[in-house]
Amino acid sequence: MNRLRPGAKGEFSAIVEDIHTASSMGNRGVNVLATPAVAWLFEGAASDALIPVMREGEISVGTRMLIRHLKPTPPGMRVRAVATFRELKGRRYVFDVQVFDEVELVADGTIERAIIDKERFERNVAEKVKPVVV
What we know:
alpha+beta, 5 strands, flat
């Protein structure tokens, strides 16, 4: 398998829509990009960075995240997350992430992801949804 080198980058961008606002996620009256939507952007950018090192039948999953949400972003603005690979800790890939809107840096932090076997993951999910016999 190819190894990800420190400094490797991934990106993910989107237009902020009403469904991405804090108001739509329960924080009524706060019509700007929600922190959970920032997490979504982190996930997208880090996932993008891992594509070159994943083999057939593998997926990546998030294991830990730290977000500093610094500035508000209104609906209609484009946001772009850039994840920069820092290090491999065991099986976890650690990324530093920055999120920018059309004006400035709006969030930063870290995300850790692991590359896992997709079939095994799906079996574990299927076990959870089996009906419980009492």
